[in-house]
Amino acid sequence: MNTTAAPLPVLSCVPPSVVFRRRTAIIVGVVTFVTAAGVFLNFKPWMLFTDFHHLVRLADEMIPPNVALLWKKTALYQSVAETVAMAFLGTLVGGLVAFVLAFVAAKNTTPHPWLRNAARLGFGVERATPNFVVLLILFIAFGFGPYAAMIALAIGSVGMFGKLFADAIEQVDPAPCEAVASVGASPFQVIRYAVIPQVLPSVVANGFYAFDVNMRAAIALGVYGGGGIGFELQLAMKVLRYPDVLALILLVIVLITGMERVSDLIRRSLLRSEILK
Amino acid sequence: MLKPLLVFLVLGPLVGLSAYLCKVDLAGFLPGLVKGMEVLRFFFPPDWSSLREMVGPALVTVLLAAVATPLGVLLSFFFGLAGARNLSPTWLRSIARTLIGVERALPEIIVLLLLVAALGVGPFPGVIALAIGSVGMLGKLFADAIEELDAKVLESVATVGATHSQIIRFAVLPEVMPALLSNSIFRFEVNLRASVLLGAVGAGGIGFELQKAMALLEYERAMMAVLVTLLLVFGAERVSDYLRRRVLDGGKLA
């Protein structure tokens, strides 16, 4: 790792035998811990071989995939559109809310340090809460379906984005802000003319990244009852129509890699273009 | 002046279409919010008496992630070697990279549902799903890290007569170790969150406890499960931050 010619006092002072002993201790420790945990969990690695025929049977039932389903069942188009729409709207709404809250959570723009701590704590709690918990509560409030899932994704995006945006705002160059303030700009004008132009590229880039994350989350939330392609997949699984399941899985793979390409393309051309300047 | 108009013209129809597809009901938002707040009231106070029953499931959740992460790292390391341009032939590289890409596109929950369908519920499908789930992220990172290695290092080890496995042991492994360790520690954090999620669909642990409490409408108990989950995730974040900083500072754990 160390290709520099500078002396490395700490590393060179430790004799090889000590390094070896430490490494062995760590490896033995990790292996012992994992083995103990596996025993505790009743995790039997050999099940992979003894129960391998179950996996083979499942694969056998799934192949060949019922690809015809993808163009025969027109309701699927709507499910795909629903999933993409959920991810898109969830990202946009969550991003906008997070963008506003980020100014409260950033050290240099916050109205009050207490509000900053409160916002940061809120982001942290949100990020730590599994999004299906949020979804279960939203189901009670808004009923099953894509609406509740979209709101769950938006709330999830606030936690993820809020921190990223706030960190970006804290890292802005103070010189332009001071320059704008010195000619008599109000705090809002400073944000509008000095802070936002600096953070906009990172905000947009993060927005596209969050869309990719939310696409996967939209499928997962669909499985829990949020509608879209995830729900279709779960239905096909419940009624044991495995050829349909494999066809839907292929669709999911194509959908996610495709959307990733598209969002990557738009993001690159957007960051290169003049619109953000 | 043109720019806001342009943004509006592009985003407006997209938002409208998505809102229609998501069955967005703006009129129903406020009543829904009020209803949601009322529902949230049922979650308080948390049922502290159930804390003792949550300890076991919480431990199961942590251990699921703890067993799955090293397995996933090992698996990802082989995928990383196979997916690196400078170590493996083109055909092997493209197969490995394709598999990694496919895995990354699949949400963990789908992998788990398939494994549950084949093997039944329990910790085994959970651990395997998490281990496989690690390959998509770690496999790609490892392969990229190996490809970025200085070709001179590999060549100089090869010229003194090292076999393929010796090159990996004495040139590749020492070079990528810090990246490997810090990414693996981060993956443990991700796996812990995923392990809560997977619990809800049958892998056991705190996620299952939560799902059960919600299904039985025992909201105060569910709140306790949420609090335990928060504690686990926050704790894991702290520990992983600390360990990663040590790894990246010193280049090793001890």
Structural write-up:
By secondary structure, chain A is an all-alpha fold. Chain A has 13 helices and no strands. Helix content of chain A is about 80%, strand content about 0%. In chain A, α8 (about 130-140) crosses α9 (about 145-170) and α11 (about 185-225) runs antiparallel to α13. The mean pLDDT of chain A is about 80. Chain B has a single domain (about 45-250), classed as MetI-like (MetI-like fold, Orthogonal Bundle). In chain B, α3 runs antiparallel to α8 and α6 (about 125-145) packs antiparallel against α8 (about 165-205). Chain B is mostly helical and about 250 residues long. The model of chain B has no long low-confidence stretch (mean pLDDT about 85).
Q: Keywords for this structure?
A:
heterodimer; A: 277 residues; mainly alpha; MetI-like fold; 2 domains; globular; B: 254 residues; 10 helices; 83% helix
Largest sheet of chain A, in brief, is: none
Largest sheet of chain B: none
Domains of chain A, number: 2
Q: CATH H-level name of the largest domain in chain A... which superfamily?
A: MetI-like
Helix content of chain B: over 70%
By CATH, the superfamily of chain B comes out as MetI-like
The residue-averaged pLDDT of chain B reads 83
Q: What fold name stands as the CATH topology of the largest domain in chain A?
A: MetI-like fold
* Domain unit count of chain B: 1
CATH architecture tag of the largest domain in chain A: Orthogonal Bundle
Percent of sequence in beta strands of chain B: under 5%
How many strand elements of chain A? 0
What's the gyration radius of chain A in Å? 25 Å
The CATH architecture of chain B can be given as Orthogonal Bundle
Number of helices of chain B: 10
Name the shape of chain B in a single word.
Answer: globular
Query: How far is the N terminus from the C terminus of chain B?
Result: 58 Å
Mean pLDDT of chain A: 82
Q: Write the H/E string of chain B, N to C.
A: HHHHHHHHHH
Question: What is the CA-atom radius of gyration of chain B, in angstroms?
Answer: 23 Å
Label the structural class of chain A.
mainly alpha
